[in-house]
Amino acid sequence: MARDVLQVAQGLMRRRKFSAAIRLLEGRNEIYEGNFDYYVLLATACLYVGDAGTASSYYQRARDIKLTDTMLLLGQAAIFLRRGDTDRAIQYYLEILDNEPRNVLAKKALEFIRTKGDYGTICRWVDSGRMEQFYPPVGTNPDRILGIVLPVAACLLGFVLVMHFAGPRRQVSSGPRADLSSFVLSAGESRHAQETDMTGGAYKFILSDKEITGSYEKARRYFQVYRDNAAQIEINRLLNSNAVPSIKQKARMLMSYLSVPTFDTITDSPSYEDVMKNPDLYMGCYVVWSGRISNVESQGTVFRCDLLVGYETMEKVTGIVPLRFDADPGIANDKPVKVLGQLTAEGGKLCVEGHAVYQSVNDFLEKP
Prior knowledge:
Mean pLDDT: 85
Oligomer: single chain
């Protein structure tokens, strides 16, 4: 009976129904506590839905039971690869090859790191879904096979196939982002990047010509490699500095091109501690913060509460920040929650404009 649940979850994962597999497995957490296969299955499902943090925690639980399993090592290597930590990923792939010298996936991943493993490419592959080819394999999707067999059979019979049964595909990134050639600083702006008269303004950052142009070029470069939070920080530095108005205007225009991330695509998420040291530098950035909520209020469709950052284990509150959603996100008050949101200011106070939440259906707490 117990084995049947794992088999059902494996079937769901082969059909790429990872969320359904997660719900099924998390509902059996107490029954399968200490079961290696359970932890690896659940971790892999979380990895495929983009929740690398929870996946890492479940893989670690599995690692406490067994160290050299190939599926476990592939999963942990994939997490490091997603983060751009190629040195750690290589260590895991080499460990796999020590145990299985002919492992094709480990060899393929090492070749990718050797030829294309720069951070920008890794970010784009994560964003487009191409990085999934290095995740632990979950088997051939029977729905996809059916979608291939039926058209072939129909052609042989002379019929035209008008429907197919393959699962939905990810939209693949079309390549480089928007062309920012028109945003290049002019020669005059580069030579005279500072305001000549600073008596009428209050600036949080007093920068030299070189620092201003360097910050602007960093923003453009970060944008092109999908590091929008890093670009936003450099834009904020310029907008709060003694840069000339024309440079600030170009920075604002660049900011309009930044996109809203997901749990799967966000990079350079600042910590609560970093933000509180200099809030103006992080305004507009997206964060993923975990904790619990309190002081819930609903006004029409608007949902407000306080996010107790770092209070997942109910031992220590790192900080308290107001959290707002345009609609009730369905957060359970008695469970830890992970929030994706944008840093804003309301009434002169830092707050988070919520965009997405992740909350486990059981009381599982991630290990630090």
